[in-house]
Amino acid sequence: MYKPTLDYAQQQDKEDKLAHLRAQFHIPKDAKGNDWLYFTGNSLGLQPKQTQQYIQQELDDWAKYGVEGHFEARNPWMPYHEFLTNSMAKIVGAKPLEVVVMNTLTTNLHLLMVSFYQPTKTKYKIVIESDAFPSDRYAVQSQLKFHGFDTEEGLIEWKPREGEELLRIEDLEKIVDEQGDEIALLLIGGVNYYTGQYLDIKRIAEIGHAKNCMVGIDLAHGAGNISPKLHDSGVDFAAWCTYKYLNSGPGSLGGLFVHEKHAHNKDLPRFAGWWNHNKETRFNMRQPFDVMEGGEGWQLSNPPILSMAAIRASLDMFEEVGMEALRAKSEKLTGYFEYLINQIDTDRIKIITPSNPKERGCQLSIQVKNADKSLHKKLTENNIITDWREPDVIRCAPVPMYNSFEDVYRMVEILKTLL
Ligand SMILES: *Cc1c(COP(=O)(O)O)cnc(C)c1O
To answer: Which residues bind pyridoxal 5'-phosphate (predicted)?
Structure first.
């Protein structure tokens, strides 16, 4: 049904019910004022134009009210994080009780491991993907070390088979079947940052739980990209950031999920601060610690309102559009991208990402034989912003909120000439 012509791409944009969203973003431009072809929403999402007003509102209220803004601001700061909860819960398929926006991703992973990585002398190992994002690997290694275990011996890698790029769920099953008695935790990226593979989270939870292992999911490349059903999947916990597909600005706060089955367990070990103490009595200082239920029970500090204002600006857009419509466009847009790449008459190119739309988000990871970083440089010189991974992979994410069919068409035309 797809056609490899500019006319066709422009026609798709005309018929696209989400095409108007592009104008609601700042699209970076070159010196002559031409839009960049921006394919790195998987690394840093673009800025919604309304973000500035949302932040300005809080600056104005701070100027106007000082400390009274905690209650008097138009959007009172005291409960501000609660304004984000419902939209965020929808995006990841969770109940509002299970979700909170706080801290940053790696910090949240550590706080969650304080509660859900409870190693014993014999059951202490952690499983990650061999291609896990470095921060996740360092985080689990440091947890092993903190608990007095060897970081090599305690870490089990779920690897692709020889000559393959993608993970097979049967291989995880085998690892857990054979070594489950020694495994305390599986911490897996829901969408792999490198290959773009979207794993079956529910299956991972079942595999882990069959051997009494805790299961945590890193959704950095999932949130706002695919529609995970975190609650139904049964995973114990998850964490993600909001500056990738959730367009909330560099270093913005992360999201955290703790499954309802743990929400009321006040005996779970966890770190504490005044912000996970019961909000009813938080300001009657010197009360004994009384932890809150649900995701909020993992907060520590009063959060940065300016960062949350940016998240709110973005989540309001997601709320308006809905993940279902975004996902539908995303499958079509990435499908078109894949189709065009497969039309290129060369044996140098291989798409690593799964071809089944159910097993990927919007990102395609394209391996280019005999290429080096100069290809990435040439793409950039042609206004195409992509992400290069050594030795020879270009990661490219057409984002349904602001990328067009024409973007994808133009990108592949230029790639063709550079090959
Ligand atoms: C982007 C990303 C991170 C980054 O962690 P921060 O704590 O937000 O700096 C960590 N893990 C994964 C899988 C990521 O994709």
So the answer is: 105-106, 133-136, 218, 221, 243, 274, 302
